[in-house]
């Protein structure tokens, strides 16, 4: 399989300015396409911004899948011949407000994922998803979707790896938090770990700039199946492109050395205990 250029567009967006956000994203996609990108990723909640005053504000910014944001992404995908993944404040077919990731190509919407693990006040705004994250066959390889906080749950990331994803795309909005001097953001380390333990490429697209007093990590990165960074984070954690050449076919092999395979070596019969309530100890056995 040949090299595929994967780009994360790290953007400064504004809550409550969907027209401006769509314009910022469109220009970033154009820059990524001009740089040769075949897969382009935009941040979480690209259309709406993130720091909502309340649920009503989010609901007023939410769009259906056939709204102007996704329609614009499809037009960009057709114009530039690429695959685009973006975060959407979505109003679904039942009127529920979702924190979603949408994958489009020249043919239209290929996959939608509704964020399952909601972070902090997101629980007061969004309805969580209840379906497995999609893994989609595309022109460049198999692509899976998650959103931000989902990466904290290794069993959820594993569901993507076990279904054969070559590349996991993760729109994110990582709020900036203190870290020791010289340390890499923990969010970036989590991307590397997810890539390594599943032997797949992982591209996470973060935000930059402040929004209503909240600053962002600016930790957009692309990691390879060994967990090493191919690109990012940007030196100043600022707005701009993070782009890497990925041989996505390398993710098809789960072998580590001559004697190990991270899928074949699994012992799922021993893992059931983490999915079942712990059995109370029998007093006679203590």
Automatic annotation (TrEMBL):
Domain CN hydrolase residue range list: 4-248
SUPFAM superfamilies assigned: Carbon-nitrogen hydrolase
Gene3D superfamilies found in the cross-reference section: Carbon-nitrogen hydrolase
Claim: Transferase is one of the keywords in the record: no
Keyword Acyltransferase attached: no
InterPro entries associated with the record: Aliph_Amidase/BUP, C-N_Hydrolase, C-N_Hydrolase_sf, UPF0012_CS
Keywords associated with the record: Hydrolase
Family, per entry: Belongs to the carbon-nitrogen hydrolase superfamily. NIT1/NIT2 family.
The protein's name in its UniProt record: Amidohydrolase
């Amino acid at each position: 399989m040949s090299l595929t250029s994967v780009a994360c567009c790290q953007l400064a967006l504004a809550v409550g300015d969907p027209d401006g956000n769509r314009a910022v994203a469109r220009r970033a996609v154009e820059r990524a396409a001009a740089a040769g990108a075949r897969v382009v990723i935009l941040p979480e909640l690209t259309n709406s911004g993130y720091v909502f005053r309340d649920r009503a504000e989010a609901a007023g910014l939410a769009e259906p899948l056939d709204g102007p944001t996704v329609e614009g992404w499809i037009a960009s995908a057709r114009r530039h011949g690429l695959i685009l993944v973006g975060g959407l404040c979505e109003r679904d077919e039942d009127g529920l407000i979702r924190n979603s990731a949408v994958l489009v190509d020249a043919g239209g919407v290929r996959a939608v994922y509704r964020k399952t693990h909601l972070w902090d006040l997101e629980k007061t705004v969004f309805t969580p998803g209840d379906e497995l994250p999609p893994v989609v066959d595309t022109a460049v390889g198999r692509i899976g979707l998650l959103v931000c906080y989902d990466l904290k749950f290794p069993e959820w990331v594993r569901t993507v790896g076990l279904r054969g994803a070559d590349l996991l795309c993760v729109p994110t909005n990582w709020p900036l938090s203190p870290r020791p001097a010289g340390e890499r953001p923990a969010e970036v380390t989590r991307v590397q770990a997810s890539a390594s333990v599943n032997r797949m490429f992982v591209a996470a697209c973060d935000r930059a700039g402040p929004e209503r007093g909240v600053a962002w990590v600016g930790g957009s990165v692309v990691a390879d199946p060994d967990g090493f960074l191919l690109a990012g984070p940007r030196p100043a954690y600022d707005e701009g492109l993070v782009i890497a050449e990925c041989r996505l076919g390398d993710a098809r092999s789960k072998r580590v050395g001559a004697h190990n395979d991270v899928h074949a070596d699994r012992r799922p019969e021993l893992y059931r205990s983490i999915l079942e309530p712990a059995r109370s100890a029998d007093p006679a056995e203590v």
